């Protein structure tokens, strides 16, 4: 009589198990079931070492959703995972302790959100996961007389992340604005809790409007759209302003339906829409070192998103770029039927809301893993 076949034990090699689990999508929902298998699996998926390995493997944090400014209060719309419930509740509790009492989103980057008061007197740096807040007063020399303002919150380590200590890691806030024929910039550092010197440069004309849409962080530079044919560049290393030209004959066809982004290879890029076509451009250097704009992709959205063929009202735009992920890996598109999120790399998409009134959204990306059934999350950038 042969002995019964011994049952194959579960994976005992934690390195092998870790290698398998690290391929799961970097969302909290991906690890809720493995954490319930046994105590060993639960300990593994909550271990900081595994989370660092997961982050190193996936590199780019998932976009959990987006913030948008509404007439009554800012709001959050989740795109994936259960973390959206927590964030949506937290944003509703944001209040400003002064007249007006309302915050407006300006930027989301490196796991933090940047908000402003209506009059730009105050800025608020906020971590939506931990709730940590830093209130910053804007100097009079920055806001008084400014025609157009924009700002960005940055982690010094940039796209490489901050190693997990998001709450305590230093950050910088860059404020840019125009006044007359000049563009200005000023940087706040959380390390010294102070503003630096105000720097400026001339603009091509007084009509160069600094757009309100979020900029792009590429290498050591921040970029914002300026007017119809220029991009404003701010270099953090030496805090210098410069202009990047956009060939007017190419980009004028997009009008305002265009955004700056960090393209593949960490170069400056543009995402633009003409009618129902999404165009992805990159600013590349040839063998002689001469930079030029190159069209990388053209995505026909009408068939992909199954949009109705009926023409929109006269003067309206059928598809509008409302927001971009930090790496340009996610595009939010407002259409005549609702807001879609599109992943250009995989061509996956889904509708996230039927609200057709949102012009600008602020995508929020972060690795986020709740601790079992606890209400307190385990997080890292």
TrEMBL record:
<dbReference type="Pfam" id="PF23635">
    <property type="entry name" value="Beta-prop_AT5G49610-like"/>
</dbReference>
<feature type="domain" description="F-box protein AT5G49610-like beta-propeller">
    <location>
        <begin position="106"/>
        <end position="352"/>
    </location>
</feature>
<dbReference type="InterPro" id="IPR056594">
    <property type="entry name" value="AT5G49610-like_b-prop"/>
</dbReference>
<protein>
    <recommendedName>
        <fullName>F-box protein AT5G49610-like beta-propeller domain-containing protein</fullName>
    </recommendedName>
</protein>
<dbReference type="InterPro" id="IPR036047">
    <property type="entry name" value="F-box-like_dom_sf"/>
</dbReference>
């Amino acid at each position: 009589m042969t002995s019964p076949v011994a049952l194959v034990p579960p994976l005992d090699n934690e390195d092998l198990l870790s290698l398998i689990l690290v391929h799961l999508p970097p969302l909290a929902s991906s690890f809720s079931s493995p954490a319930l298998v046994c105590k060993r699996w639960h300990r593994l998926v909550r271990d900081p070492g595994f989370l660092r390995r997961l982050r190193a493997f996936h590199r780019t944090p998932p976009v959990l959703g987006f913030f948008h400014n509404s007439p009554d209060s800012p709001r959050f719309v989740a795109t994936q995972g259960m973390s959206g419930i927590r964030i949506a509740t937290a944003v509703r509790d944001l209040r400003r302790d002064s007249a007006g009492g309302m915050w407006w989103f300006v930027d989301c980057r490196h796991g933090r959100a940047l908000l402003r008061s209506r009059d730009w007197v105050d800025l608020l740096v906020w971590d939506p996961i931990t709730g940590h807040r830093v209130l910053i007063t804007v100097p009079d020399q920055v806001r008084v007389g400014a025609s157009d303002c924009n700002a960005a919150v940055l982690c010094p380590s940039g796209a490489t992340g901050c190693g997990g200590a998001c709450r305590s890691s230093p950050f910088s806030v860059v404020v840019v604005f125009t006044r007359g024929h000049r563009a200005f910039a000023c940087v706040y550092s959380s390390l010294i809790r102070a503003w630096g010197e105000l720097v400026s440069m001339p603009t091509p004309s007084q009509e160069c409007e600094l757009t309100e849409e979020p900029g792009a962080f590429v290498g050591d530079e921040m970029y914002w759209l300026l007017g119809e044919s220029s991009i404003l560049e701010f270099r953090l290393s030496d805090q210098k302003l410069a202009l990047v030209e956009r060939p007017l004959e190419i980009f004028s066809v997009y009008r305002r339906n265009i955004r700056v982004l960090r393209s593949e290879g960490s170069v400056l890029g543009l995402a633009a829409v003409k009618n129902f076509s999404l165009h992805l451009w990159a600013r590349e250097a040839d063998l002689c070192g001469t930079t030029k704009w190159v069209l990388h992709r053209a995505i026909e959205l009408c068939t992909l998103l199954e949009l109705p063929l009926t023409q929109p009202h006269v003067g309206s735009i059928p598809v509008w770029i409302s927001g971009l992920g930090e790496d340009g890996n996610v595009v939010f598109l407002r259409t005549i039927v609702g807001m879609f999120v599109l992943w250009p790399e995989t061509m996956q998409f889904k509708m996230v809301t039927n609200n057709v009134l949102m012009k600008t959204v602020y995508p929020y990306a972060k690795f986020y893993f709740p601790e079992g059934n606890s209400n307190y999350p385990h997080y890292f950038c």
